[in-house]
Structure formats: structure tokens, C-alpha cells
């Protein structure tokens, strides 16, 4: 794994913590699957007001993602309905 230009090596059975707000990349050169468990931590320098604001922004982002997922699914549904209608017209 490379974080902010520094290379780190994952060791089996050990935890590895890094700041993913920094530019980073990971790779798995082995033939084994790797499972990653992610946790979010507040930066210790954030004030309570900043944490609250970021929490609200995160909630808004989650809401937007759910809304977008709903819109995309509805669009797919409409395309299927149009396609089915086209197929029925061809049968006539």
C-alpha cells in the first residue's frame, strides 16, 4: 500500500491504520483473497461543531445516494417497460 508517497506492507494478523483522505493506492499481488474492514475515526483536531457539520454532510450524502439509486432503478424500470412494449408491437 502506498499512502502519500510512502509504501507500507500489510502483515497477516496485524492492523494497519492510515488516513484515507491522503492520496493512496493498494494492491494485492498474492493469489489469496484479502478482506478489509474499514472504520471511520474523527480526526482528533476537529471540534465538536466540525464533527456535527461533517456528520450532517455525511447524512445528506447518504440521502442523495439513496435517492439517486431510486431514480436509476425507476429509469431502468421504464426502459424495460418501453422495450417490452416495442417487442409487443413487433409481434403484431
TrEMBL record:
Gene3D superfamilies: B-lactam Antibiotic, Isopenicillin N Synthase, Chain. InterPro entries: Asp/Arg/Pro-Hydrxlase, Asp/Asn_beta-hydroxylase, IPNS-like_sf. It holds the Pfam family Asp_Arg_Hydrox. It comes from the Bacteria. The keyword Zinc does not apply. Residues 1-44 form the Aspartyl/asparaginy/proline hydroxylase domain. Keywords: Dioxygenase, Oxidoreductase. Belongs to the aspartyl/asparaginyl beta-hydroxylase family. This is Aspartyl/asparaginy/proline hydroxylase domain-containing protein.
Amino acid at each position: 500500500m502506498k499512502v502519500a508517497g510512502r509504501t507500507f506492507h500489510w502483515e497477516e494478523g496485524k492492523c494497519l491504520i492510515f488516513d484515507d483522505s491522503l492520496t493512496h493506492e493498494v494492491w494485492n499481488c498474492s493469489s489469496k483473497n484479502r478482506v478489509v474492514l474499514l472504520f471511520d475515526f474523527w480526526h482528533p483536531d476537529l471540534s465538536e461543531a466540525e464533527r456535527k457539520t461533517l456528520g450532517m454532510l455525511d447524512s445528506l450524502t447518504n440521502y442523495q445516494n439513496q435517492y439517486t439509486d431510486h431514480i436509476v432503478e425507476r429509469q431502468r424500470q421504464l426502459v424495460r417497460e418501453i422495450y417490452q412494449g416495442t417487442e409487443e408491437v413487433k409481434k403484431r
